Amino acid sequence: MNTKRTLFSLAAAVLSVALGTAARGDCAADELTVRDVVKKAAPSVVRIEVFDKAGDRVAQGTGFFIAPHLVLTNAHVVDEFYSLQVVLNSPRVWFDPQPTILKCDEDTDLALLRVERIDAPPLPVDPAIQIEIGQAVVVYGNDYEGVPLASEGIVRACLDGEIIHSAPSHGGHSGSPILDMEGRVLGVNTGSYNRSGISNMGYAITPSVIEKFLNKPDAPRSLPWAGKSRFWARQWKNVSGFFSRVFGGVFDLGTSLFSLYLKGASILILAFLGWKAAEFLKKSRKRLKAKLAEPAVRANPVMAYMALTVWLISLIVSVFTLFLILVWVTETGAVGELAGYVVTLAISYPLYFYVRRYYRQNRPGKRSARPESATSPGVRNGVGAAAE
Fold first, then answer.
1. Pair (238, 100) in one structural domain
2. Are residues 202 and 94 in the same domain?
3. Helices 231-251 and 301-331 sit at what angle, rounded to 10 degrees?
4. Pairing between strand 94-96 and 148-159?
């Protein structure tokens, strides 16, 4: 009896060990290498390029598809910028230069984009996924140069709505997916700590926070075409850049000193314009008094004032265009830009002289150059006959 019990116990122990080994083998078989995780996620991860009002690319981040035509990223990647472009690099390069921001929440630092021109296999976010301290994670996204980077680390801590991990995060990694070794999304990478004495410490948003964000109502916001610029923003950037290069090199001024110089120059220019405006008002008042005292024989004030408006506008356009040509010469820009400037100057400069002449001939207070009436004293009425 004891012998049978002993044999039964040994058989049970062997069976349990075998089952445990098989279970561990199956679990290990489910885990992927870092290279496999990256290959699995690459077709779903996109680069997000952001542009300012002058049409220049100023920054970039990362996002990933969570559903057909829907890209999840960080709010600070897309918020407060003029236009965006979504780029999918794998398996081939696709662009969407005009995505729509469906919703953007600064509190959770999440944003959802809709891209109509490209699509990719989604990386679904499971709010019930288990996250454990010490488990391996992979961060996959873009750096400053637009080249995807993969970082490996572990989960260092799980906080309320936040994951602390040790995978190095680089510029452009904002919005990247945090993946476990099965290729599942554990969160959205948001940034890294840059404090003294702290290294390899990044943080990400948990799936539970992502789920609450996705359940919020949409507030669609359309954007201009990526890289499209506003005229005055583009010109101001050209002018400010020109002055920065010229005067920064001549006077060797730093950014703060040059900013102070521009402010002082602006004050002087405004003072000069105010002085000229005061002189103009003073002369206008004298002319108005003279007109009231002795009305003009002929005047066309409406057309004269319209001509004055066109005169001033054409003068401003001519001077500004000349300055843009000077900027073009120093920067050696595109030939098409120079052609546009020359055409503008060819129209505004003759217009300036024409309307100035018209205004001076028809301005209020201008006397007629015609001879006096035949009924005026001293003018003969007929041949050899004097008027009464």
1. no
2. yes
3. 50
4. unpaired
Q: How far apart are CA 244 and CA 273, in angstroms?
A: 24
Burial tier of 306 (Cβ tally within 10 Å: 0-12, 13-18, 19+): middle
Q: Where are the alpha helices (DSSP H) in the chain?
A: 2-30, 34-41, 75-78, 207-214, 231-251, 255-293, 301-331, 335-362
Distance CA(279)–CA(286), nearest Å, equals 11
Residue 130, number of CB atoms within 10 A of its CB: 9
Q: Is residue 62 part of a domain?
A: yes
Domain count for the chain: 2
* Cα angle 14, 29, 34; round to 5: 145
Residue at 269 is within a domain: yes
Any domain includes 311: yes
Inter-residue contact 348 to 310 (CB < 8 Å): no
Share of the chain above pLDDT 90, in %: 32
**165 and 95 within one domain:** yes
pTM beyond cutoff 0.70: no
* Per-residue pLDDT tens over the stretch 170-216: 878 899 999 999 999 999 999 887 665 456 788 999 999 999 999 99
d(CA 258, CA 203): 38
Closest by CA position to 62, among listed 124, 156, 149: 149
Tokens of 200: 């390899």
> Is pLDDT above 60 for 252?
no
Most confidently modeled range among 161-170, 238-247, 290-299, 328-337: 161-170
Eight-state DSSP code of residue 43 = G
Helix 335-362 to helix 301-331 angle (10° resolution) is: 160
The dihedral through the CA atoms of 287, 288, 292, 295 has a sign that is positive
Helix (H, G, I), strand (E, B) or coil at 103: strand
Question: Across the strands, what pairs with 101?
Answer: 113, 221
Same domain, 150 and 285: no
In a domain, 16, yes or no: no
pLDDT tens-place string over residues 138-166: 999 987 676 788 999 999 999 888 999 99
C-alpha to C-alpha distances, 30 to 33, 36, 167, 180, nearest whole angstrom:
10, 11, 22, 11
